[in-house]
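Hypothesis: this fold can be encoded by more than one sequence.
Test: take the structure tokens below, design a sequence, compare later.
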């Protein structure tokens, strides 16, 4: 295959031409790329009011993260509305690239039973998999050489986008299939281990959330003792900490000796933190905060100007739509002792007061009832709604006695530490994978026994 390599201004030189360097247009012409399209435009683009919790998942750029597609979090378009659309349907194995507003996110569509739709922020590449392997193309798209091409095209556009017509000038390095397989076997070993760490973290947090709900929402240990049973999944010493009767409160019946109170009484909300204007400090923007899990993307130092301030032990809750509804929440455990960080003005900072331990705040912020209350406390015009603190701080919760709070902390603190350690390990593996990627794709690094070497690296 040959390529028309009309250079773009400021484009990096391509990797050494050990392998074919071609354009997307070349690959379309030869049939290696069988389809290259985006979603529905204009009147065919679904309106927000048309989505529901049932129907066909509708994928957008924000649902792509480090090679993964979060189908579970996608809004649903009813089947009858989807039936009216002719384009935008993707298949397992298609490679997705975000090209509008959020640029350069990549994923391979995973195995899925049923139809999937993409919005106009995504392009899909449907491949002849005997000649171009989806995982290889996705890896190449994530690499610096391709991402720099996207930036070069954007710099010559009046909007933050790389439209379909421009994408067809992008260059791709295409090794022989056997080399593609060797490269992906190495990268897949890293990705598999990173996935395992993420799955482990999801399981660990689910355990902590289940324990929180059992103890402080459903009062399972107290119900058991009232009924003359031993509380489940705890030792005798822990069970002895729980009362064996209930008493009336504003929240209804709660364990005797505990108290029902407001969020304002139980937490510091946006507490004051000393941080001098102009002083460099770790900065966290909204985009870096996860929709699931407590670990954000690592902050970067920036001179303090104006924003929320936080320290280890605080929980950050997005207060603006749609970030709150999407679940953006983080627990701060990434700073040095005594260090102050700062971030978006759209964060609410929550810090539990004694006897509650710090991770209690994060687990509460992830509870369905709390989030529903926060969403109901939003005010403002459509599309720019924010949580009204004067309403949120009236949320009622049950506070245990000091002994139960301490016991809960002793259970969940090791879980929090394990989650953070796993996230650090996953980040280190991602960085190592991304360091290897350009050398593998350029052909500078060849590992005949690549899988074994990769497994040693990630072990």
């Amino acid at each position: 295959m040959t390529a028309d390599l009309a250079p773009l201004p400021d484009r990096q030189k391509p990797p050494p031409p050990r392998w074919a360097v071609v354009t997307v247009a070349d690959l379309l012409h030869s049939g290696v790329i069988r389809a290259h399209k985006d979603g529905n435009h204009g009147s065919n683009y679904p309106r927000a009011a048309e989505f529901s919790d049932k129907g066909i998942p509708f994928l957008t750029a924000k649902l792509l993260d480090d090679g993964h597609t979060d189908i579970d979090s996608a809004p649903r378009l009813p089947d009858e509305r989807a039936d009216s659309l002719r384009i935008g349907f993707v298949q397992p194995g298609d490679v997705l690239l975000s090209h509008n507003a959020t640029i350069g996110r990549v994923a391979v569509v995973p195995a899925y039973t049923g139809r999937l739709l993409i919005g106009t922020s995504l392009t899909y590449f449907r491949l002849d998999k005997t000649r171009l392997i989806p995982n290889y193309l996705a890896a190449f798209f994530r690499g610096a050489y391709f991402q720099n091409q996207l930036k070069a095209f954007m710099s010559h556009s009046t909007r933050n986008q790389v439209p379909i017509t421009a994408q067809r000038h992008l260059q791709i390095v295409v090794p022989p299939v056997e080399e593609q397989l060797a490269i992906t076997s190495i990268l897949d070993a890293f990705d598999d281990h990173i996935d395992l760490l993420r799955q482990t973290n999801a399981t660990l947090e689910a355990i902590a959330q289940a324990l929180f709900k059992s103890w402080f929402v459903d009062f399972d240990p107290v119900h058991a003792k009232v009924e003359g049973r031993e509380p489940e999944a705890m030792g005798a010493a822990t069970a002895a900490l729980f009362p064996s009767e209930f008493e009336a409160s504003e929240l209804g019946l709660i364990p005797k000796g505990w108290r029902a109170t407001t969020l304002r009484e139980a937490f510091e909300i946006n507490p004051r933190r000393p941080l001098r204007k102009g002083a460099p400090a770790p900065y966290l923007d909204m985009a870096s905060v996860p929709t699931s899990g407590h670990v954000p993307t690592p902050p970067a130092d920036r001179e303090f100007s104006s924003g929320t301030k936080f320290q280890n032990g605080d929980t950050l809750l997005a207060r603006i739509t749609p970030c709150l509804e999407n679940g953006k929440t983080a627990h701060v455990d990434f700073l040095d002792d005594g260090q102050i960080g700062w971030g978006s003005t759209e964060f609410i900072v929550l810090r539990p007061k004694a006897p509650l331990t710090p991770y209690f705040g994060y687990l509460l912020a992830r509870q369905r009832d709390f989030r529903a209350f926060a969403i109901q406390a939003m005010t403002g015009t459509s599309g720019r709604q924010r949580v009204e603190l004067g309403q949120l701080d009236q949320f009622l919760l049950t506070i245990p006695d000091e002994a139960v709070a301490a016991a809960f902390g002793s259970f969940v603190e090791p879980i929090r530490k394990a989650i953070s350690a796993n996230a650090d390990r996953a980040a280190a593996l991602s960085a190592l994978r991304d360091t290897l990627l350009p050398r593998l794709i350029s052909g500078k690094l060849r590992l005949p026994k690549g899988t074994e070497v990769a497994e040693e690296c990630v072990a």
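Confidence is low (pLDDT under 50) at residues 1-17, 450-459. DSSP finds 15 helices and 26 strands in the chain.
Hypothesis status: open.
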